[in-house]
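Milestone M4 deliverable, item 7.
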Amino acid sequence: LPELIVRRAGVRRLRIWCAACSSGQEPYSVAMLVREHFGPQLGGWDVSILASDISTEMLDRARSGRYSQLEVNRGVPAALLAKAF
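Output delivered:
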């Protein structure tokens, strides 16, 4: 991402695609990572994350953004959970 941010500085636009996103945890994780580690650098940028999957059922679940406590706790540090949620 740092190299991509440097290359895209002229247009100040960043597009991220999460293919095969299933129920959507990955796009949320990517959004948290980008905000946490690159937020100040990307102030004023047009940043978007596109999540896609072949399963419409999984995409509906991803759109809802509802996850169990187990799903949310898996792999996300407590401090980041408190900050993001």
